[in-house]
């Protein structure tokens, strides 16, 4: 049965990332340092040749896609955006650490959300929609390989929720410009809403 390879890639750094503040819906561009780090990775790593690039609509992801997958068509998928952190948006851990609402959120739980923000169950629900759209588009257009440029929290939840074998979210974090290679077939997705995790990417140049 035909398999489709998808490469999930984390966007580069923004000024907000460098400052250690929560950003979800805030549309930051890459910082100068973030752009340079991605360019350096192109010298050190081999990125896959793909037929299409799917991206979160946020500037930091679109700019990353343009750097890492130059001259490839980019299709934005709105449901690939980062979690909405609500009232925690734009604040650092130091600013939040003594807030009861923040302490409560850190305890976890799929229904637990930041004030005026998004819960884990809401996030995973829309990530399923994003994956379904991407996989169906690949099958309809006979694309055998594609990159998905998105956010750290998105990748962590996609891999831990839909990937096989199963991993805890804490085991599948990734650095900027890095991520995971997966393989999906029509049967796997239609019957189990799952894909096979092949490994981390990109790969060192030989």
Spans where pLDDT lies below 50 across 5 or more residues: none
DSSP summary, beta strand count: 9
DSSP helix fraction: 25-40%
| Large-scale geometry | globular
Average pLDDT metric: 95
Order of helices and strands: EHHEEHEHHHEHEEHEE
Number of helices: 8
Instruction: Indicate the structural class.
Output: alpha/beta
Could you tell me the radius of gyration in angstroms? 17 Å
Between the first and last Cα atoms, what is the distance in angstroms? Answer: 31 Å
Q: Going across the major beta sheet, what is the strand order?
A: 4-3-5-1-7-8-6
Write the layout of secondary structure elements.
Layout: E1 3-10, H1 15-19, H2 32-44, E2 45-46, E3 52-55, H3 59-68, E4 74-76, H4 93-96, H5 100-106, H6 120-141, E5 145-150, H7 152-162, E6 163-164, E7 179-185, H8 186-192, E8 195-201, E9 203-204
Parallel strand pairs: 1-5, 3-4, 3-5, 6-8
Antiparallel strand pairs: 1-7, 2-9, 7-8
Helix pairs in contact: 6-7
Notes on the protein architecture:
It is built from 8 helices and 9 strands. Helix 6 crosses helix 7. It has 206 residues and is an alpha/beta fold.
List descriptors:
single chain; 206 residues; alpha/beta; seven-stranded mixed beta sheet; two-stranded antiparallel sheet; 8 helices; 9 strands; globular
Describe this structure in a few short sentences:
With 206 residues, the protein is α/β, with parallel strands linked by helices. The protein has helices spanning 15-19, 32-44, 59-68, 93-96, 100-106, 120-141, 152-162, 186-192; strands at residues 3-10, 45-46, 52-55, 74-76, 145-150, 163-164, 179-185, 195-201, 203-204.
